[in-house]
Design goal:
It comes from Pinus radiata (Monterey pine). This protein is mostly helical. It is 68% helix and 0% strand. Residues 125-129 have low confidence and may be disordered.
């Protein structure tokens, strides 16, 4: 977590890999911290890769990690890729809890309308900019 907060993401990834190499299985918290750090640094493809790995390991991204990835793609005007990520997650069995996502977005917003549209398939009137 400290490396992510200090924006030393390559160090965080190195430690993460070392943990796995030494037989320490990362938990959902570890994955989510790394994913959110990567999103903040606009390393979205890496964040998606870790999210998919996380799902393969049987863990689910938290709402903040999920929204961070989608928001990151939409901020870069890559809404179609955001929708593609959501489809990849669905293929792995992950479907975000709509109520939890709405509550998070209302609390942490405003978010671009494209984020709402990517996640919910329609524009939302509230909580958007």
């Amino acid at each position: 977590e400290g490396f992510c907060r200090a924006k030393k993401l390559d160090d965080a990834k190195r430690i993460f890999k070392k943990m796995k190499d030494n037989g320490v299985v990362p938990n959902a918290f570890s994955y989510c911290i790394l994913i959110q750090g990567l999103c903040k640094d606009k390393r979205l493809e890496e964040a998606v890769d870790y999210s998919l790995e996380m799902l393969d390991q049987g863990w689910r991204p938290n709402v903040a990690s999920f929204v961070s990835i989608i928001d990151g793609f939409c901020k870069e005007l890559r809404s179609d890729e955001a929708k593609g990520v959501i489809n990849q997650f669905k293929e792995k069995g992950f479907i975000a809890d709509e109520k939890a996502v709405r509550e998070y977005m209302d609390k942490k917003g405003p978010f671009f309308p494209s984020v709402w549209e990517a996640i919910f398939g329609k524009r939302a009137a509230r909580g958007t900019i």
